[in-house]
Specification:
This protein folds into three domains: about 240 residues, P-loop containing nucleotide triphosphate hydrolases (Rossmann fold); about 110 residues, CBS-domain; about 35 residues, no CATH class. The chain contains 18 helices and 16 strands. Bound molecules: adenosine-5'-diphosphate (ADP) and magnesium ion (MG).
Amino acid sequence: MTDDVTSRPAPTAPDRNVTGASIKLDGVVKHFKGQDKPAVARLDLEITAGDVVAFVGPSGCGKTTTLKMINRLIEPTEGRIFIGGRDVTREDSNKLRQSIGYVIQSGGLFPHWSVAKNVGAIPRVLGWDKKRIADRTEYLLDLVGLDPKIFADRLPKDMSGGQQQRIGVARALAADPPVLLMDEPFGAVDPITRVRLQDSLIAIQHELGKTIVFVTHDFEEATKLGDKVLILSEGGHVQQYATPEEILTDPATPFVEEFVGSGAKLAYLTVTRVKDVDYDNVLTARIGESSQGVIDRARASGQTWVVVVDEAGRPRSWPSVAEVATKPVVSDYLDRRMAVVAQSSTLNDALDAMLAASQGAALVTDGRGAVIGSIGIGSVTQTIQSKLADVRAEERKISYESYIDGSDSSPTPVVAAEDEPHVVVRDEAHVVVDEESNVGTADDGSGTQ
Ligand SMILES: Nc1ncnc2c1ncn2[C@@H]1O[C@H](COP(=O)(O)OP(=O)(O)O)[C@@H](O)[C@H]1O
Ligand SMILES: [Mg+2]
């Protein structure tokens, strides 16, 4: 061993910022009083610092019990739990809980407290000074996508379910805990809000690098968010603990096979990204440009649709050439219902976006939200079908890493944030659309709630 710091080996994932702590469950058992069988028979589990791990399995299999044993909301009957290598089984449980973020389904906010007061709850207990709490609250509200100026003084009842859930996440992160536990965090919101919350959790995780353990009954959500997925059967028995790709391509047991079963097709949508699909070229036009010029270009390139973009190349509307021809110059109309996805979005999100917009295609944007092409519903379904054929042919294991670290060659010439994590990219791209349609409210689509 040498002490020469300059010759240290490069970290395995240089783009990954980890502030989280490892978690280890060592022979953990929970036997509730009056029950014949243990809820969790004997569980050994190691979670790497900075990983997101999803617990899935049928109802009553012990997911919540296991999660709650990590922060000792439920005391294990036997076994030990280590966080960051420290045995926390004998520590003061209140102190422990202050150092572990916890998010439950409906946000669990104190209804008579303002957002700021809710978020500052644990820092106050920890005796932080006012200024520090205020700064932290502002940072966190911003992090979860809510404008502090608008939301800090609001009461939970004056917010949508999705917004409350965002506050729940901000509150759990208030004291900067290394570990975040979430029990069906997005189980109570509508599907579109759910996708947005999931995306923003990915973005938050990328920025903070916590260790996140969450329970979900939704296998698709597990594969979308989890670096690893833990599939449990009754009694807290581990059926498989592996990456989503491994589970999908190589289910460890018949139980897993059946559990994944019909979800496999959907799950594939969640691990395949827009950039893995060929996109079509689009013709762009600038606001204020002469319509005739655009029509000529469209004719020359055989395009029937035109993407109107702003100075930054971000899409404003997606009219047909015939529509463009009705005005002398390209109008600055903003179409709020366009389907727009980032190249790092999943195919599932792309389908969602198309369905929400009632369109058979979506625009694809780079990390800064500039249009780089479009994808049609046909190419999405084709990709899924060929993916499924691959699975059936078994063989070749595709590394999930190649999807998430962007090491596969990106088909776009646009130099943008693909070096950065896909999540942030995607989030930014959404902002292009969402910002305008939710001015001043940072709404989660509460109009539909
Ligand atoms: N407080 C409790 N007292 C007695 N039994 C419980 C308690 N909490 C959970 N259980 C039982 O433990 C098992 C696992 O429950 P739980 O962890 O909540 O399952 P999951 O979250 O996977 O749906 C179930 O059989 C449930 O009935
Ligand atoms: Mg549960």
